[in-house]
Design a protein that fits this description.
With about 140 residues, the protein is mainly alpha-helical. Strand 1 and strand 2 form a beta hairpin. The protein is globular, with a radius of gyration of 23 Å. About 10% of the residues are buried.
Length: about 140
C-alpha cells in the first residue's frame, strides 16, 4: 500500500492498493465528535423552544399557541404519545417533499388516511390545512 505524500496541502489522502485507489477524508473522526444526539428531546420541541418570534402582534402569539397545542394533541384518542398532530403532519409533509408528491396526490393520501383512522382523528383534510399546521409562523415548506 502506497500513500501519496501530497497530503500536506489538503485533508484528503489517496491510498493505492493493488491498482485500486481509495480516497480517505481525514477530518471524518473530528466531524463525528462534534455531532451530538439527544434522544430525550424531540426536534419539534427544540424548534418551538428555539424559535425567535416577535409576539408584538397578538395574532402571531395565537398562531404560536396553536402550534404548541398541535404539538401535544394526539392524532386520535388512544394513539401512541409520539403521534401528535404536529409530528404526524410534519412527517407526512417530509415524505411528500422527499418523494416529489403533488399537492393533489397528497390531498388524496390525507383523505384516504382520514378514512382509515378512527373518526376522532385530527389529521388535516387537505394539503392547504396540513401546511397551515406547520407554517403558522411563516415557516416555508
Amino acid at each position: 500500500m502506497v500513500q501519496n505524500e501530497d497530503t500536506e496541502d489538503n485533508d484528503m489522502s489517496v491510498e493505492e492498493d493493488n491498482d485500486t485507489f481509495v480516497e480517505q477524508d481525514n477530518d471524518m473522526p473530528g466531524m463525528m465528535e462534534d455531532t451530538q444526539f439527544d434522544d430525550d428531546e424531540d426536534d419539534i420541541s427544540r424548534l418551538l423552544r428555539d424559535g425567535e418570534v416577535d409576539f408584538t402582534d397578538i395574532r402571531m402569539f395565537g398562531k404560536f399557541q396553536k402550534m404548541h397545542e398541535d404539538r401535544t394533541t394526539p392524532l386520535f384518542s388512544g394513539c401512541k404519545e409520539k403521534h401528535t398532530k404536529l409530528h404526524t403532519v410534519l412527517t407526512l409533509l417530509q415524505m411528500k417533499a422527499s418523494n416529489g408528491w403533488s399537492d393533489k396526490s397528497f390531498t388524496e393520501l390525507l383523505g384516504f388516511l382520514r378514512e382509515l383512522l378512527p373518526e376522532d382523528n385530527v389529521l388535516p383534510e387537505n394539503t392547504y390545512y396540513a401546511k397551515k399546521v406547520i407554517c403558522p409562523l411563516g415557516l416555508e415548506v
